[in-house]
Amino acid sequence: MRVLGLLGAQREDGVTAHTLHAVLDAVPAGNETEIVDLAALDIHPDRSEEPNPVLDDLERRMLAADVWVLAAPTYWGGLSGVMKHFLDCMRQRLVRFDHRGETHPDRFRGIHAVTITTCYTGALENTVMRVTDPPLRQLDAVLQAAGVIRTREIVVTGTWGMRKLPARKAAECARVGRAIPGMRRRDDETMRRYIQLFGMIAVMTLATMGLQRLLARLLPPEGFWAGFWGDYIVFTLVFFVLLSAILRWASVMRHRRR
Ligand SMILES: Cc1cc2nc3c(=O)[nH]c(=O)nc-3n(C[C@H](O)[C@H](O)[C@H](O)COP(=O)(O)O)c2cc1C
C-alpha cells in the first residue's frame, strides 16, 4: 500500500509537519510512505497549451497512492493558503466536469484520506468555538467532490510554543498511522457500511420496543394509547429521540476538536 502525505504549511518543521510525520512513521513496515512539502513546489494552475510538470508529477503520485494524508494548519480561521492554492490548481484534475459544468468524482474515486489541522486555539475554546471546523470542512468538500473517502481527522490544538507533540496526540497519530493499511477501497467499505446500518437499526428497534413496553405501563391500558396509532406515535417518538442522540454522538466523535 502507498501512503502519500501532503503538507500544506508555511513551515516544513512546524507542528503540522510533526503531526504528519507522526502518522506516517507509524504506518507498518512493508507499506510505502512519502511526504510532499507543497510549499517547496512552484504550483500554478493549468494553462492551455502550457506544460505543467509539477502538477503532472503530483497527479501521478496522488493516483498511485491508496491513502492520502492531508495536513494543513488553520490560518485566519480557514484552510492554509498553501493547501488551498494546491487544491484550487488541482481542481480540473481532481474531478470530471459534465456538459453543464457540474463536477463528478473520477479517477481518484475510492482513495482514502486522513485530514490533519493544527491551531493556536486551545482545546476547550476549540470545542466551543470550532475554529478548526472551516479548514476541515473545506478539505472534506474537496475530497467528497473527488470521491475520496475521508476516514479520520486529527486536530492538534494549543500549538503556541509547542516544540513536540503532546504524548496523547503522538499516541493518536500512531494509532491512525497503524490503522492506515486497514483502509480498503470503496467496495469493501460499502458492504461494511450496510452491515453497520443493519446492526444500528436492529439495536435501535430493540431499544425502542423495550422502552415502548416500559412506557405502556404508564399509559392507560385501554383506549387510544393501547391501539395501533398510539403504539405508532410512541414508537416514532422514542425512535426519533434515540436516533437523534446517536447521530449527535457520532458527529461529535467523528469531528474531533481537541
Ligand atoms: C497566517 C496565520 C494565521 C493563523 N490564524 C490562526 C487562527 O485563525 N486561529 C488559530 O487558532 N491559529 C492561527 N494561527 C496559528 C496556526 O494555526 C498554528 O501556529 C499552527 O499550529 C501552525 O502550524 P505550523 O507549526 O505547522 O506552522 C495562524 C498562524 C498563521 C501563520
UniProtKB/TrEMBL annotation:
Q: Which residues cross the membrane?
A: 194-212, 232-250
Q: What InterPro entries does the entry give?
A: Flavoprotein-like_sf (IPR029039), FMN_Rdtase-like_dom (IPR005025), ISF_SsuE-like (IPR051796)
Concerning Gene3D superfamilies, the annotation shows: 3.40.50.360
Pfam family membership, one: FMN_red
- Taxonomically, the superkingdom here is Bacteria
- Residues annotated as domain NADPH-dependent FMN reductase-like: 1-92
> What are the protein's UniProt keywords?
Flavoprotein, FMN, Membrane, Transmembrane, Transmembrane helix
One GO term in the molecular function aspect is: oxidoreductase activity
Record keyword Oxidoreductase present: no
Q: What is this protein called?
A: Flavodoxin family protein
UniProt source species: Pseudoclavibacter caeni
